[in-house]
Amino acid sequence: MSGTRDLKLLGTKESLFTHRVVWALKLKGIEYEFIEVDLLNKSPLLLELNPVHKKVPVLVHAGKTICESLVILEYIDENWKDGYYPLLPQDPLAKAYARFWAKFVDEKFYQGATAAFFSTGENRAKGIESVAEALQVLEGEIQGKKFFGGETIGFLDIAVGWIAYWFQFVEEVGDFKVMNSTKYPSFDSWTKQFLQVSIIKENLPPPEAVRCVFVGFKNMAFQAKNAEN
After folding, report:
1. Which of 25, 73, 119, 175 could form a disulfide with 123 if both were Cys (CB 3.0 to 4.6 A apart)?
2. Strands 58-61 and 64-67: what pairing?
3. How far does CA 78 lie from the centroid of its chain?
4. Closest residue by Cα to residue 149 from 86, 198, 221, 225
5. How large is the average pLDDT for residues 175-181?
6. How far is CA 95 from CA 104, 169, 203, in A?
7. Are strands 7-11 and 64-67 parallel, antiparallel or unpaired?
8. Could you tell me the pLDDT band of residue 4, with boundaries at 50, 70 and 90?
9. What phi, psi does 30 have (nearest 5°)?
């Protein structure tokens, strides 16, 4: 791996957003120091480096702070370009498309999954519907392709990648089911191929650890709701 001085990544080992950055750094062969953060007891360092959102991941490069996973991915790709694995395509239009679909996933799919996981009644139903609609769109986008980035994974694959692994636990703990290999065969094929990429396969948190995190989220939401009553 390429030696890089003064590069630190604050995150959690189970965070889907942290893993976006981990995958990008690993693909480019960039060395970094990982600083694990307890989000239930946020450290002064995290609050100092990300005072706006107080969330991970946070990348610190030469004393400068970059927050938000998609922003960090672009920073990494711009800063380590020549001779390094490319994340975003060179073509301006293809680059714009990748950014558009990454934002789509974080808004339409992630927000829908969050509503399906935490809500009840009509809001839960709307969340499930939003996820199904997003999956249908992604199915059309990946159809006929090996990866969203073409023959190799890229920026958009990394952005969508959490769905391939984390979403199964969202469904399991949230007690709903949307993913369907028959209904979304191209997306299912992409999921399987993505998880077999060595960099991805070797840098996934253990299933039980991810499951425990989502169970914890669910329990905290239940306790908060009971406290309001």
Report:
1. 119
2. antiparallel
3. 20
4. 86
5. 98
6. 14, 31, 26
7. unpaired
8. low
9. -100, 130
